[in-house]
Amino acid sequence: MKVLGLYLLTLVLGMTSAYSQSVRQPDIKLKEGAVALRGNVEKIEVEEEDSSSKYAMTFVSLTLKLSITNTSEVPLIFLQREPDCNQAIIAKNADDLDVRDKKFLAFSGATSSDLTSVKWVNLRKSLDSPSPPSENTRILAPGETFNFDGWIRFNLPKEPQMYASSPTKSESLARLQELSPVLLRVQCVAWPLNLEGVNNERRKLIFGRELQTRWKDVGLLWLKDIYSEPILLDLKTATYKTASR
Hints:
Helix content is 20%, strand content 32%. The protein has 245 residues and is an alpha+beta fold.
């Protein structure tokens, strides 16, 4: 009976400890809807690739005005640097603005190979502190917004049939102009993977989650990528540049 009593006591204490830890960290499990990314297109520039190849491209550059709003009930911590816009899709309907459904009209994606430059090493060192350093972080109170500039480029095929087997195939600019206005969704990176180093587990965000726990009394360090609300895009208003390639 004594052994059984000790077992039950240990079990209760363990459950109590786990419960108390979950109570102390309620803000670490916020839903993705805790932030809102909104924006509009400021400028559309088109440059035609100077090539007669069937695989030639048309380059469409979008200059954006974007904003992130804290729609949660707790302070959120972001880097002071502007988020990178590394992916975007175009679709006719809001329901098709999901790259996984493959119903989009155009896709743009970019990754950074600049993993070990001095700027990332220095930024990581400055962030490795007991509290968020004011020179490199911003704290967004509930309801607050910060604005930033964004830029994205779509490489659109002149002859889409030449890329028919690509999982991220896009329509031609002529077709997108015919369908315009269309909708744009941009993906922005709030916490660059470059800060996590070059180890094989960098996508687990070891450093970011460590800071998230360390700074939890100040606010929640936002680590997730952020997807914009649908942005209206009228490609008929594009301006054309002289080809440089």
